[in-house]
Amino acid sequence: MHKGGSPAHVAGAQRIRALRRSFFLALCLSAAAATAQPLDNTLTRRDATAWLNKIHKAAQRENYVGTLIYQRGSVMHASRIQHYSDLVHNEYERLETLDGKPREVLRQNDVVHSLIPEAKLVVVEKQDAKDRFPALLATNKNDVLDLYDMRKMPAERVAGMECEVFALEPHDAARYAVRLWAEKNSGLLMRAQTIGDGGKVLEQVSFSQVQIGVPSEKQRILAAIKNSSSWNHYEVTYQPTSIADEGWSIAVPLKGFQKIREVRRPLGELRAPPPGNARGQVFEVLQIVYSDGLTGLSVFIEPVSEQRARREGVAALGATQVVVRRVADFWITVVGEVPASTVRQFATAVEYRPPKTVH
Predict the structure, then answer these.
(1) Rounded CA gap, 310 and 298, in Å?
(2) Which helix (H) or strand (E) holds 348?
(3) Which residues, in sequence order, are CB contacts of 196 under 8 Å at separation 6+?
(4) In three state form, how does the secondary structure of 246-312 look?
(5) What is the DSSP letter of 146?
(6) Partners of 321 in beta bridges
(7) Which residues form the signal peptide (predicted)?
(8) CA-to-CA distance for 85 and 64, rounded, in angstroms?
């Protein structure tokens, strides 16, 4: 048998190889051209507002179940989430930890029941869930676009879902950049990343698996709340307060941060109250919450106490920065998912003048 093949056969094989090389080269050139395109794809304010609004509403109004992966620095953990909404937009949610100690959070609108099985304890409190993943905005959505430019990035898939991808770039160094992946049809947020210097991902939360538009099982959540009624209950109360009346002032040092609330609240690890004590030991602090609409920070003011050993210093984990300083006989703690310089400026802005006593 002739091994070399006919001249016509050899020439045909060469043409096929040449076509393959040309096709591969064309693909490479197309990819390079796409990569080299300028990223001048900033959304108009109208389009940006529409997408932020769609993302925010989807978290509240869609029925979805899935697995969430949280990553903060080197720390990672997973949770299972179920969320249902009815025709008048009541919300029912169940969040279960999948690693570490068993924990379960049951929510009906703004009333949250946190279950601690080993202590047979239920902590009940009112919480605003509007700024927790997959919800997004803590203040009016238009405020965000005074502080960030929103760009559209190439589409990607997350948890098997086709997503539109957006980058929110801050106008200054007082806040981090944010990247968002929203499911194309519903707008449900699939992934959110906090981006630091050099494009480093400081923190992210993402669905690893999700189903959208599932039938409601809100009755199971209501039944779980009812079934925990025989456990010890601890109700966390937040008392609205005026820090000015107590001698405190905080001149907001940076543009865009709005005071959301100031309250007196309990602090510390919650345990089942001892027999005969319905509330147990309560250590209260003042908390002042600020937000720029997309991210935020809290200022805590607590009296110096032998119950809690504290010292001045700084700490960081992922995007979260902490500063502790002493003012008079009080500890000031500022915690936020913002750059360290922002936390330091807020800590420095806290001032105290003892209120005059009335005789």
Answers:
(1) 18
(2) helix 340-349
(3) 176, 202, 319, 339
(4) HCEEECCCCCCCEEEEEEEEEECCCCCCCCCCCCCCCEEEEEEEEECCCCEEEEEEEECECCECCCC
(5) T
(6) 316, 336
(7) 1-36
(8) 9
Q: Which residue has the tokens 């032998």?
A: 306
Contacts (Cβ under 8 Å, ≥6 apart) of 240: 261, 262, 263
Residue 91's Cα: distance from chain center in Å?
19
In a domain, 357, yes or no: no
- How many structural domains is the chain composed of? 3
Are both 85 and 163 inside the same structural domain? Answer: yes
Q: Could you identify the residue written with the tokens 């040449």? A: 18
Q: Which helix (H) or strand (E) holds 172?
A: none
Prediction pTM value: 0.82
Measure the CA–CA gap between 175 and 197, rounded to whole angstroms: 11
Other CB atoms within 10 A of residue 197 CB: 10
Partnered with residue 76 across adjacent β-strands are 71
User: How deeply is 253 buried, as exposed, middle or buried, from its count of CB atoms within 10 A (0-12, 13-18, 19+)?
Assistant: middle
Evaluated on CA atoms 221, 223, 229, 232, the torsion sign reads: negative
| Burial of 291: CB neighbours in 10 Å, binned 0-12, 13-18, 19+ | buried
Q: Which amino acid is at 271?
A: R
- pLDDT tens, the chain, 359 aa long: 444 454 444 444 454 444 445 444 444 434 443 444 445 699 999 999 999 999 999 999 999 999 999 999 889 999 999 999 999 989 999 999 999 999 999 999 999 999 999 999 999 998 876 668 898 866 555 689 999 999 999 999 999 999 999 999 999 999 999 999 999 999 999 999 999 999 999 999 999 999 999 999 999 999 999 999 999 998 888 889 999 999 999 999 999 999 989 999 887 544 445 554 444 456 789 999 999 989 999 999 999 988 788 899 999 999 999 999 999 999 999 999 999 999 999 999 999 998 876 55
Phi, psi of 217 (to 5 degrees): -125, 40
DSSP-derived 3-state class of residue 338: coil
185 and 102, same structural domain? yes
Residues of the domain holding 11: 7-37
